[in-house]
Amino acid sequence: EAKRAGRGRYRMFEPGMDELLHRRREMEIDLRRALALKQFEVHYQPFLDLASDTCIGFEALLRWKHPVKGNIPPLDFISLAEENGLIVKIGEWVLRTACKEAASWPGDLIVAVNVSPLQFKADTLLETVASALEKAGLPAHRLEIEITEGALLDDTDNVLDTLAALRDLGVKISMDDFGTGYSSLSYLQKFPFSKIKIDRSFVANANADSEAILRAVAGLGTSLGMAITAEGVETLEQLARIRGERCTHVQGYLTGRPMAPDQIATFLAQSNREWKGEPE
Ligand code: C2E
Ligand code: MG
Ligand code: MG
Ligand code: MG
Fold first, then answer.
1. How far is the CA of 253 from the centre of ligand 3 (A)?
2. What is the predicted ipTM?
3. 3-class secondary-structure state, position 141
4. Which residues pair with 231 in a beta bridge?
5. 113 alpha carbon to ligand 1 midpoint, in Å?
6. Integer Cα distance of 222 and 198 in angstroms
7. pTM of the complete model
8. Which ligand is nearest to the CA of 75?
9. Distance from Cα 176 to the centre of ligand 1, integer Å
10. In ligand 1, which atom is closest to the CA atom of 75?
11. Which residues of the chain have pLDDT under 50?
12. Which of 11, 67, 246, 262 is deepest in the core (most CB within 10 A)?
């Protein structure tokens, strides 16, 4: 009796683990083919300058259109791509695609590209960026590289050297998801970022602690000469709050969702609309 019950429990547990490993292996096989099969796309989310209320650029966000599973969000496959190293090739494709597409945008619009810590470790980032800019004919000042605190965790000296070399090319460097990692403040001292993007959790939570952190980071960044983007602004009330906190830029569903490249012209033509409104 006991043996059967025990075996039953074991058998109920085991398929779960198998299933997970199996799905993971399957996803890895699919991921390895995704580039060659052209299943990736880059979508673009606008960010606005709060002083002029105009769109000044777009963040490139990777999209995977899986033929069977449909759209797989980046959070579901990027960590896997980091574990198996595929992110280096995929990240290079994103950089080249984003630079090429941005070169067709009007004026001086910026394209911001997320770069994984592993791309720094691969030691080819500088070359890749320089070549992507050149092939696309995009001036360096129109490219912004977004890094997270994770990039500065180990091998910091090499990463700082690469960041400095990128900056010398004329590329902007921003610190993404600020406030979610470890010992965040010390990173601001290590490198003169052009921009800090305050993680959307501090925007979404309207409690006293989040507001105090938002205010402190915006104040500190401003006095260090950095631009401050509030991420994930979804409501007019949040927009009004961040305007009061010395944020210089805003990015969120309120001012524009990520869009396919062919939607950008229409978006720009209709710009300067509802987000100018303040809550009654
Ligand atoms: P991220 O770099 O912080 O990008 C912003 C994410 O927040 C995007 O999610 C965007 O769609 C989402 N977002 C923007 N505004 C709002 C809002 O108002 N509300 C909410 N709830 N969400 C909002 P997405 O596209 O799913 O990307 C998630 C993360 O995946 C990115 O976070 C970035 O860390 C990573 N990622 C995306 N594309 C790439 C890439 O090409 N390379 C690398 N290494 N990472 C990427
Ligand atoms: Mg980002
Ligand atoms: Mg972010
Ligand atoms: Mg994020």
1. 13
2. 0.98
3. helix
4. 251
5. 11
6. 13
7. 0.92
8. 1
9. 10
10. 30
11. 1-3, 5, 277-280
12. 246
